[in-house]
Design brief:
Layout: H1 2-12, E1 18-22, H2 26-35, E2 42-46, H3 51-66, E3 71-74, E4 79-81, H4 84-99, E5 103-108, E6 119-125, E7 133-139, H5 144-153, E8 156-166, H6 167-177, H7 179-190, E9 193-195, E10 198-200, H8 203-207, H9 214-219, E11 225-230, E12 234-236, H10 240-246, E13 255-257, E14 260-266, E15 269-272, E16 277-283, E17 285-289, E18 294-298, H11 305-315, E19 325-328, E20 331-339, E21 342-349, E22 357-359, E23 363-371, E24 374-380, E25 383-389, E26 394-397, E27 402-407, E28 413-421, E29 430-433
Parallel strand pairs: 1-2, 2-10, 5-11, 13-15, 14-16, 15-17
Antiparallel strand pairs: 3-8, 4-12, 5-8, 6-7, 6-8, 7-11, 9-10, 17-18, 19-20, 20-21, 21-28, 22-27, 22-29, 23-26, 23-28, 24-25, 24-27
Helix pairs in contact: 3-6, 3-7, 6-7
Length: 439
Amino acid sequence: MLQATLRRSHAASKEPPIIVTHLDYRFIVAEQMAEKNLGPAQILLEPTARNTAIAIATAAHLALQRSPDAILFVQAADHIIQKNDALYVAVKTALPAAALGQLMTFGITPDFAATGYGYIAAGDEILNAPGCSRVQQFIEKPDAARAEEFLHSGKFLWNSGMFLLRADCYLHELKQYDPIIFDAAAAAMQDAQIDDQAIRLPLTAYESCPARSIDHAVMEHTMHAGVVPCDLGWSDIGNWSALWDIGSKDNQDNVVMGDAVMHATENCYIRSEGQLVATYGIKDTVVVATPDVVMVSSRHQPQDIKFIIAQLQADQRDELTTPRRIHRPWGYHETIVDGDNFKVRKISIKPQARLSLQRHQHRSEHWVVVSGVAKVEITESKSQVVRELRANTSAYIPRGSIHRLSNIGDETLKVIEIQCGEYLGADDVERFADDHHAA
């Protein structure tokens, strides 16, 4: 979905896109871009999530460094758009109004009584901007009865959460209606640091900033909100049930991704990212099996996942914050088994990349090469050993030794790592040299 969003950005503008994401996702974003050759881009790394008002504000500051007349086409990476050509027509329609200083959004013509979307009531047409209307009212997510009323009236549009707006005009309105967020964004950009082709935003600017959407901070207050009605084949994929809505279904109306065997199973969304999922005698159910967790829920209560999240937070479960696969600029590592005093990981290293030169005080490691060509450096008691390893060969790294693992081949290096020791925490790493800033 991120790749599809970037492709839409490239089609709409020749300017490199600005991507705003959490610091933890920087290497996933880079990997997704490289996979489909979707670069270059400017990446803003947020230290913590504070919703869209400040995210768009920091992007606006960055865009104004390129041009004083910069116009932002704001998209979220979790939207499905099936009619891209219609989107580009809508952007072209909205452009004259945006250039005049209107903060334009895209209103989706509703085709069912959705209770999970906000709505927009459109007013009079904007002067000198055919096809663009002023926003009369933004309406929060309605109950079922009111959603039916909106649908049948033909006067209301879904709020897509996409925008076309002049960067300077958005910042002007943000300063007027939410100066705290405006000041936080300005401070964040002033103290931002360039970090390996990304821009790292400081936590100090974000700590006091409220988590507020652009709708609540600006759009519901400004006198310059406009809307373009459009039919884009749009869906906001905010939950697992939404993926069932848009997915390709079998004869029993099941959407299946991954390895699954089913009997007497109807109207279900089933997704496996590894192990076999077997179901029988269920209806209207979501089953998602990942390496971290298996989730089973009713398809008709997708929003209730927030209660599970709250429980995981209260229990301080690692599954909420630490996925088994962690991406790094050199590749990734994935935990296979995490036991008492031992851990088994799969390490995948890109061609000609290498890990940091490091040492562990509490564990030893065994590296077994599965494929590719590795260079292993081990320094112990002032003596250094450098070895070249290929498939089916291994190396032992004693506790306290300085060591490094490199891929010296032209294909991906895959290694199984076995850690043994009384403490296996990620903070038991002392780095001496690192190509990627402690990664």
